[in-house]
Amino acid sequence: xxxxxxxxxxxxxxxxxxxxxxxxTQQLEKTVEELLSAGARTLLFDFQDLDYINSSGLRVLxxxxxxxxxxxxxxxxxxxxxxIQEVFEISGYDKLFGMYETRxxxxxxx
Length: 110
Description:
110 residues
């Protein structure tokens, strides 16, 4: 997995490419922990170039939500491909995270 982090206003955008599993999940978890420790309160995961996510990848997203939500923070997802969107719908996580078709729509909601 390739991970790029950028900031737009007060939103930290995490762009992921390829597959979110195994070693990629460890990399994402470390990055999210560092961002949260540094005070990030609004995370936007951009899945435009993400081909696959497994349960350990979902776990990292849920961990971020569990840490941010009680403190008024937000975890949002954008640009998920249909089959990744389906994973969120089947697991019920589409109700947990704000999910948007485009980055602009996601940023507009934050």
